[in-house]
Design a protein that fits this description.
Blueprint (H helix, E strand, L loop, with lengths): L9 H9 L13 E3 L4 E3 L2 E2 L3 E4 L2 E3 L2 E8 L4 E3 L2 E8 L2 E3 L2 E8 L4 E3 L2 E8 L4 E3 L2 E3 L39 H4 L4
Parallel strand pairs: 1-4, 2-5, 3-6, 4-6, 5-7, 6-8, 7-9, 8-10, 9-11, 10-12, 11-13, 12-14
Length: 175
């Protein structure tokens, strides 16, 4: 009754229709949620949205990042957009930065747009940039000028060390 291609077995046609498409076509729009009991040492890299409620000791790169009230980040943050409600110890680079009233930032912020709610704590430098993600950060980004040493210079090696002498006022009696 039905005429079909006899070269294809039913199992072959079934496996072709149930085969998943490429992974890039199946990208999920759901955020990656890192819960409050998570403690991570290392870097996080994501093109999508990341919601962090735990603790990260390392750098975070994400398309969109939400740092929850109890979250702690020790490292650099790079994102298109970032909402900070918790604590960040390190620099933040993002096109859009929002500091909530519960935010505590100890580090520099480079941004294209910045909003700060009343009550947010920020200790660092803030700089506007048209493209904060394209700029390099860290010591390699600055020109290599010699650093000044705050210690006093050491005495020359060929001169003997100074001998303690009494002050001139004590020698006045010998006049």
């Amino acid at each position: 009754m039905f005429k079909g291609n006899k070269d294809v077995s039913p199992s072959d046609s079934m496996s072709q229709s149930s085969m998943p498409t490429k992974r890039t076509a199946m990208k999920s729009r759901a955020p990656s949620i890192l819960s409050g009991d998570l403690v991570l040492t290392g870097s996080i890299v994501s093109e999508g949205e990341v919601q962090l409620d735990g603790s990260v000791d390392g750098d975070i790169r994400a398309g969109s990042l939400i740092i929850g009230e109890d979250a702690v980040v020790t490292g650099e943050v790079y994102a298109e957009t970032v909402v900070i409600r918790g604590k960040v110890s390190g620099s933040v680079r993002a096109r859009q930065v929002q500091l909530a009233a519960t935010a505590r930032i100890e580090g520099d912020i480079v941004h294209a747009a910045l909003s700060v709610e009343s009550g947010a704590f920020f200790d660092g430098h803030c700089r506007h940039s048209t493209d904060p993600l394209a700029e390099k950060s860290g010591p390699s980004a600055t020109t290599s000028a010699p650093k000044m040493d705050s210690r006093p210079p050491a005495p020359p090696a060929n001169k003997p060390a100074a001998v303690d002498q009494p002050p001139l006022a004590a020698n006045k009696s010998s006049l």
